User: Fold this.
Amino acid sequence: MSDAPEVRPPVVTPARVVIALCLFTPFVAMLWVGSYAKVDPTFIGIPFFYWYQMLWVLISTALTMTAYKLWQRDQRARHGGTK
Assistant:
């Protein structure tokens, strides 16, 4: 018998899939340049290109916060709520 701790493979759970989607979505939105490389429609005089990117700053913040909270909950459940 070995003294090394047992190494468990990573577990894919629905919460972790949602976390990955929350973190991956902003990258896809910003890398798909053809979807926002235009001027119209303008919003209060600001071209679409600029307000779309600023909107994604807010959306990315909310998605990152959601991913972090889900990760905390996942870790508490995984370690038996000791944290």
The two ends are 31 Å apart (CA to CA). The chain is about 60% helix and 0% strand. The first helix runs from residue 14 to 31.
